[in-house]
Amino acid sequence: MLRLFVQTMPDLAPTLRHVLGDVIERIVPSYPVMDADTQRTVHADVTRYVASQIAGMPGFLRLPYFLALFGFNWLSVLRNGRPFRSLPVDRQASYLALWNDAPIGPMRDFVKLIRSSALLVYFDHPLVMRQLEAERRLPVPSRDAANG
Amino acid sequence: MTTPTSIHTQILVIGSGAGGAATAATLASRGYEVLLLEEGPHLDTSRIASSSPEAIARLYRNGGLTPILGNQTIAYVEGRCVGGSTEVNSAFWHRLPPDCYHRWRTDAVLSEFSPEVMEPYFEQLESELSVSYLDNAALPRSSELFRRGIERMRWQYTEVPRCQKQNDGASPFAPGNKQSMQRTFIPKALAAGTQLLSDCKALKLRHENGKVSGVLVQRTNGAARQHVEVSADTVFVCCGAVQTPALLRRSGITKNVGDNLCIHPMIKAAAVFDDEIGAHEEALPIFQVKQFWPNITIGGSVFSPGFLAMLLSDNWKMNQHAMHDWSHMALYYAATRGMNRGSIRVLPGFDDGVVVRYRLTEADQKNISAGLAHLGEILFAAGAKVIYPSLRSQPVLKSADQCRGFLKEPIPIDAMGLSTVHAFSSCPMGENPDFCATDSFGKVAGFRNLYVNDASLIPDSPGVNPQGTTMAIALRNVDHFDSDRGRKHKGSMHIGSRTAASHTAASRSAAKPSLLITGAPGWLGTRLVEVLVKGLPGVAAFSDPEPERVIRCLVHPSSNPALLNELSPDVQFVSADITDPEAARALCADAEGAVLFHIAGIVHPARRTSEFEQVNVEGTRLLLRAATAAGVRRVVAVSSNSPFGFNPTHDHLFDESSPYNPYMGYGRSKRRMEALVQEAQASGRLQTVIIRPPWFYGPHQPPRQTLFFKMIKEGRFPILGDGTQKRSMAYVDNICQGLLLAATVDNANGEAYWIADERPYSINEIVDTVQNVMEEEFGIACSTRRTRLPAVAGSIAELIDGTLQSLGLYQQKFHVLSEMGRSIACSIEKAKKDLGYAPTVELRQGMLESLRWCFANGLRV
Known about the structure:
The complex is a heterodimer of chains A (about 150) and B (about 850). Chain A has about 150 residues and is mainly alpha-helical. Chain A has 8 helices and no strands. In chain A, helix 2 (about 15-25) packs across helix 3, helix 2 (about 15-25) crosses helix 6 and helix 3 packs across helix 6. Chain B is α/β, with parallel strands linked by helices. Chain B has 3 domains: about 1-40 and about 80-90 and about 95-130 and about 180-255 and about 425-490, FAD/NAD(P)-binding domain (3-Layer(bba) Sandwich), CATH 3.50.50; about 135-165 and about 260-420; about 505-855, Rossmann fold (3-Layer(aba) Sandwich). In chain B, about 35% of the residues lie in helices and about 20% in strands. Chain B has 25 helices and 35 strands. In chain B, strand 14 (about 285-290) and strand 15 (about 295-300) form a beta hairpin.
């Protein structure tokens, strides 16, 4: 039964995909600077890529990951009174940081997988690469600005 | 899910990576029928950069997200596509370090394994994979800096060669230039006849009593999945160090399987330099530090902004600002020889449920820490301003002294961000029963026909990239398998004769054959051997046998080869069924430059028409493949009149331009046989000639021909209609003349010839001639009666024959009768003109010789 469920599970339910999209939005930097349309395109591509990576995981890992994504969204209610998706951007970021620095390994691993995949595809995205190349010979911006 | 399908093959190779591709290509090139299965897709990797997100998503197993669990998760990366990990790796090439030979012979009790044994395999591979050093290309800036650091440290280093083909003006490391399996052994395997099925995952091996009968395979096509049963005589599992033990364990094969996994844990670091490096535009760095080998190897890594970001991601909040310096940065690694043994287990209920475990030991921790320390020393010596290690919650490195601190105080294991691209030893080979899963040549313990031939076999960590070692071992094991098969077959090859004690006979029997014959000791085959041994009477060109000619015959196991021995003590024979894929390979072994007479075929199957396909088509396919692989010069294939059906009128003669019009199953099978021969000829690798003899007669005839004489004697032979329908007949010596001409006339290559007696005969003439010969030459009283049937009887027989054959059944009498009312006659003009064919025996003489042979052999007419 479990096997059947895992094998027939949809890639990623729309709600979970939206959760994933919000997590990715909080992770990827605002660097390099791109116009809003390009940024939206890139973020959509990054979300699609990470979703497909999760969907491509072996069944016995995929199922816990789906559950973790679901739990990540709804456990926010305990702390913030609302699920992650309904939080304002700054509170989403602090909630994500909470998981990122959690003393429980699987919580950290949950964020790590999304973060590393998202950053890989973000910075290797052709539109981002083009912008990086364009900025290559410009003076290096201050680190404080980048952190923002 | 669709209806299960089944496939049969002689050799099934599961996995198309370094081990599988080399195995498939080598076996196929030696005439084996090979089916190569690959779980992943068949994508053209020359168009995908191997480290791009697209490659990671499409070419890597689990999108690159395969964890090795333990006291710290290690990311394991392997390919899952046609070509396996060779499509995604850096194509570094290392020979097996010398110390491994002695250690493996001692620890694993590995036999026949020495540098001398392995040298030719490494040489062959280095040639086929174009292993070379960077040439005529600018040294990558990241490598230049790295080398500067090493030299300042005065440490040993080396340039590592790669599998690469350098094209003018193009980067030697561009995707299309890397000599992965897709550009080397897989095309070679396909050219040699290997069938490749991608998107096919082997789920389970079917086995019983130490023999694997096949594999349950899941074929994926988009969202659709289909189960396929693949049966095979021999199975090679080459799925890599993780998937091979997983498949074996899923199939209940567990002894020493998946218990001894070795890996090379690797830690990475990004260095920032003052200068622009542009590492993303450059080739991979090419130097490796050997100062701390075998426990630690330090080198450069592939770079892209995405890879850099991934490395920084563990401390992203703290270090993301470094991305602004991306063009001044390069990535490096310190790889260590894992000191522990990991395990591979499968989760019941999940086809992809493979749990890989490896627990880092204190020694691993020290080696990784030391590796990062030394890497830092090199990079700071090279001018790095700051180093970002893949460590969680650890500060960036700002000095060599800080790095050397790891030598005194090792890095906490849970802070390490580790990965590995090298895994092996999960099914070690050797004769040590406490440790090894296979024998010294990859045969799985307790099995007769199951082999492992990939990195799983490597007994322990070689301390270098294992691709070279994996491939060299694969070739060695295939050689052993092949020679083992050869030995077994030679066991049934009666080399020499009953008098083979003589040195002359023995040495000659060991000689390479110049003539190969299938279909002996059948009717025509036996006569051909006789003619070759004793000469062809009445034909000056072939009247004297060539004394040094070595003949090898394929003899059906149910046949008695004694007759061949009686003809000549020097005739070699291979006892095997032509439908046995092994038979053709054994027949053609060492037969480079030989001529093959393919006479074997089935005209009247015992019961089922499926034998037509098995013997006449598949047998020919196997034979042609083996002949091509062995370098046989020319194949003279004996076909039939049946692919052409019947003459439209009694006066019509078939010639070589007549269109195909196959009659029943036999005709169709011979038509397909001709097509295979023509394909082989078109490939340019084999000369071929097709000979089409109609109704044979002559010595060594089968019982049905004796029955023919008996029926004429008793007046029971059925004559349909008025008996004026024509039949071309071919006395066996005439056919032998045609065969020998076809073998020797250069211009015959690629041609087909009708070979028969000088002229066709009417049915009445045939019956009258046989009766006269019996009466006049042997004094046999024959009935004057003739059994005459209306022509419609032939049509009725044809109807019944056709109905039966459509049901897969065969009844010889209906089939023969269905042909008796029709003309089957041909012209031999083309053979006369091109070959100089001149039949020397006509009907009366031929029938006389046939009857003489019958009586001489005690047959009663």
